[in-house]
Amino acid sequence: MKRIIKLVSLLIVVSLLTGCFGNFALTKKVYQWNDNVSDNKFVEQILFWGMTILPVYEVAGFIDVCFLNLIEFWTGSNPLAYNDLDGQTIEIDGLEYKIEVTENSLKAVQMGTDASFELVYNQETSNLELKSNNETKVIGTYSDNTLNLVKPDGSIKVINM
Question: Residue 96 contacts by C-beta under 8 Å, 6 or more apart in sequence?
Fold first, then answer.
């Protein structure tokens, strides 16, 4: 159970770090591409300068600000944003989990097993739900840019976004 609480906490923190004013998903994807081009930091730096002079980063930022973040503001989802975590693996207490992401959920599947749990935002009830072992437990609520998380001791942590 401790492992699940650690993983849920990590997933909540990761999802909160995306920011409330927009994910800048396209700019992040350009940066990640640049970061993975070479293992040589000098090549990456020269490419970074070139992409800044040729305004690749500026154009990506402009598209994020004027279009993608605006879509995210009005619809609640950025067409590029939630795919950043999808398919990635994380390790907790020596166990690897593969992350599956949809618009309103994060699912962690333990590698090599069928064991999994899912963190789901229920739009109808504004509840943040943890689904594990055929059980669903409400672990928080989200409305009006405020996240109320229920801690294991029963107290509530309020996070204004």
Answer: 89, 90, 110, 111
